[in-house]
Structure formats: C-alpha cells, structure tokens
Amino acid sequence: MRGEEKEIKEVLCGATEVRRSKSDSDVYLYYREKDDHFTCVVVRHLDNEGFLITAYFTEAVKEGGLIWKR
Q1: Does a structural domain hold residue 70?
Q2: Is the pLDDT of residue 2 over 90?
Q3: How confident is the model over 24-67, as pLDDT tens digits?
C-alpha cells in the first residue's frame, strides 16, 4: 500500500462499513468501496488509543460483527 496514504486516510475518515474482527474483539476493519474493489484498513483499538495494523485491497467484505454501515 506504499503510496496509498491518502486512500487510507479517506477510508478511516469516510468508511462505508466498519466490522469487528471475528478473532480479536479489539480489531476493527474499515471498508470503503472504490470502483470494482474495497479498500480495507485494519486498526486495533485499545484503551482509547488505536494503531493501524495493515491495509489492503479486496473484492469482498470479510465476515465479522457489523459495527456501522452507511
């Protein structure tokens, strides 16, 4: 995702869907649809702090607890 910093910020600020990870309740997946794919930004929230774990392009939204959907 090198060079995609702007896209990552846009996903975090304007996600169309946020899901909680099935394997770790402190991890959230932020999705935003763009063209024919989604950008997914994976963030760990812990003690009112957060940090980015990874980001990637995908064709489908993963299962997990739906937190929010636009």
Answers
A1: no
A2: no
A3: 999 999 999 988 999 999 999 988 888 999 999 999 998 889 99
Q: What is the CA radius of gyration of the chain?
A: 11
Number of domains forming the structure of the chain: 1
> pTM of the full predicted structure?
0.89
For residue 45, the cross-strand partners are: 50
In a domain, 55, yes or no: yes
Residue 12 domain-assigned?
Answer: yes
* DSSP state for residue 59 in the 8-state scheme: S
The answer to whether residues 29 and 18 touch, using CB atoms and an 8 Å cutoff, is yes
CA atoms within 13 A on the CB side of 51: 3
Residue 67 forms part of a structural domain = no
Neighbouring CB atoms inside 10 A of 33's CB total 13
Read off the amino acid at residue 38: F
